[in-house]
Amino acid sequence: MPSIADGSASPSRQAATMSANEGKGEAIRQELAKMANTRAGGTYIPPARLRAMMAEAQSSDPGSVEYQRMNWDALKKSITGLVNKVAIENIKFIIPELFGGANLIRGRGLFCRSIMKAQSQSLPFTPVFAALASVVNTKLPMIGELLVNRLVNQFRRSFKRNDKVVCHATSMFIAHLVNQRVVHEILALEILVLLLEKPTDDSVEIAVGFMREVGAFLAEEAPKANNSIFDRFRAVLYEGNVSKRVQYMIEVLSQVRRERFKDNPRVLEALDLVEEDDQITHEIGLDDEVKIEETLNVFRADPDFLENEERYKEIKAEILGDDSSGSSDSGSESDDESEAENGEAADQERVEIQDRTETNLINLRRTIYLTIMSSAAFEEAVHKLMKLSIPEGQESELCNMVVECCSQERTFSKFYGLIGERMCKLNRVWSEGFEMCFRNYYDSIHRYETNRLRNIARFFGWIIAADGISWACFSVVHMTEEDTTSSSRIFIKILMQEMKERLGMKALIERFKEPTMQESFENMMPKNDPKSTRFSINFFTSIGVPQLTDGMREHLKVVREEALAKAQLDEESSSDSSLSSSSSSSYLSDSSRSYTRSPSPRRRRQRSYSRSYSPESRRRERSHSRSYSPEPRRRERSYSRSYSPAPRRRERSYSRSYSPEPRRRERSRSRSYSPSPRKRRSYSPSCSPSPRKRRSYSRSISRSRSLSDSRSRSRSRTRTPSPPAKRRRPARDAFSPERSPSPKRSKRSPTP
């Protein structure tokens, strides 16, 4: 029974397995088709699954579009990885792997793009990439020609766009291809003529760098053309249309030529991989029409994919077969050498791990110090310092040692200032190093004594005035009371005085007022806080450069005017609110008015007003009386007011006499005041005491007008004198210079 069951079940099990495999294959094909329609190859696929998918696609249809797309992605990854991994030590192993693991004919566009991108991102490895390109060019000249065409096109575009970085990288790659004889030297001469035809700082700088790389080759292969190029450099130097830094670069290039380019050989021994008989040189001019074939960078289905793959296998066998004969003899020797090199490298790494005393750094500082002290002139010192083998990443130590040596002197010596200026204008590395030193020394300047502080400040003032470092370094200076110390203020003071002495006041002010540099000076000349602005104004005025504060003074003036305007607006709004509140609560009782007129035969008119307010009766009375007198051509007008408040009663009237009552507060508006029985206050120059503390105000104004031939108008004010008393405190009258003594406080009977 079991055997029968097994025999009957086996066909169904096989059918199920076949259907599952077919479903799985269909899913893989669908995913491959989806990837073929995308530009970047779709999402990430693990390597194991990718290999399974490629095996499945190859077994089903090796020439399908899906398989070609996957093969293209693998080709791109392989070429990019090998190009990025190449170095002097492993280039002999990378080249066979590159030919054997990738179809360079199909991926020649990918190879050119990868090697150009890698070279632009790592310029020190340019000789290595040029050696790799020369080896590939001997086997596949079409790739070398395509690479040169693309480099020429890229140089043209970058030169027209004034893209200094790309132009410099491209010219350096072309120079090393000329050294490797991949391209003819006529291209190098055309580039030099173009760069020096209309010299600018950037073009001459690129030409100097290009000549340093290709000068040794031109001196041997085209000496006459090389001499003419250096004559043009000399003419540019004598014309003086370029900056000092570029002039120094031309002088250094002349010195390198006199030394026969010993630091810039044509080809390093480790990178001389091609025999002269095998070299293929492309004669391409700068003005020739070039084909860059951008379509080779993207995937395109090949209908003859299988035939082309078989053809490349034959080419690969031929290339690697030629190389294998030469490499088989030296296989054991290379293995021994590699083992020895690995052992030495391991020993060096072990020593570096154990050495934690910074012995190398101390020795480097000692060497720099002795080099500076043994030099008679600054040119000799700079020349010796440039010849020192300074490890990569420790360039700042040289800048620090120059500043430290300067600070140790008893007084500032321009010897160090000239050294720093020359170094900054020779190479941008030293300029950036001194900028970093400025930031570090400004942050820690409080640790130095006064003499060292003075020398450091004068050194940086010298190189800043000489444009050795950028003026943007002033962005670290925050000229506020909180962010500065006495040492930092002294440092800035001495630095500014040195710059003023070197440049002059006019040039110094113009440099500080450049619109493009205002962002770097906003912390040094703050305008966000009036307190900091005033502090900065006082500081720069005290150190002798008040012209720098013009902008801050104008800004502070505008801020003050805005503050005053705002205060006036606030005061007006508050006064309006108080007036509105008082007017709303003033009149609460009824009011009545009576007008009486009595004409007189005389031409004299007299007008009087009397008012009385009685809060208890909640009534307001107002009477107006007018009388005319026949006095000729005379008009008299008088007003009188009196306030006689009673207990729980307020009365206001206009009269000449005042009769105070006990416990009554009477107020009248006049120029003579008599204090109340309980409390006495005086508001005018003439004050008279009363028996009780009483405050009264009386005001009498008479106005007369005479209508004679000479028409005049007079206004007089009279005062009611108070009883004499002892003078206490004088007061000032607004209308008359007369003064009366202020009475003492005493208890007296009220005056009638």
From TrEMBL:
Where are the compositionally biased (Basic residues) regions? 742-752
InterPro entries in alphabetical order: ARM-type_fold, CWC22_splicing_factor, Initiation_fac_eIF4g_MI, MIF4G-like_typ-3
What are the record's GO terms for cellular component? catalytic step 2 spliceosome
Residues annotated as domain MI: 363-479
Entry's Gene Ontology BP terms: mRNA splicing, via spliceosome
List, as start-end ranges, the regions of compositional bias called Low complexity. Answer: 322-331, 575-599
Please name one Pfam family that this protein belongs to: MA3
Principal subcellular localization:
nucleus
Q: Name one GO molecular function term.
A: RNA binding
Q: Where is the composition biased (Acidic residues)?
A: 332-346
PANTHER family given in the database record: CELL CYCLE CONTROL PROTEIN CWF22-RELATED, PRE-MRNA-SPLICING FACTOR CWC22 HOMOLOG
| Protein name as annotated | MIF4G-domain-containing protein
Its source organism is Meira miltonrushii
